[in-house]
Design goal:
alpha/beta; four-stranded mixed beta sheet; three-stranded mixed beta sheet
Length: 110
Amino acid sequence: MIHITPLALTELTSYLQETKSEPSVRVHLTPSSCGGDGLLSLSVDKEFASDFATKAGELRLLIDKGLLERTGAVTIDFKHDGQDSGFVVETEKIPPPGDGGCDGCSGCFY
């Protein structure tokens, strides 16, 4: 299951309209160089047969079914925090960055 907060939906829809991008957004794993498996990120992508897909407003939200099994429910949010504002992807089964593993950048996906 992929959940998106109302603010994240508004921000993501606005961004995709401004950039004239397709309205299909993937939650995916970005490799990490600090010892963890990586970070969950968002990208514009097409849908594949191996995906779980759901609709939110005009957006189609995608995640590989295997990754979804590892993460459990995924929530996409948008945080306003000065210069660090942006999208945040949180999961049900994966501890937040800094809750174990390495002591480096605190951005690993376990």
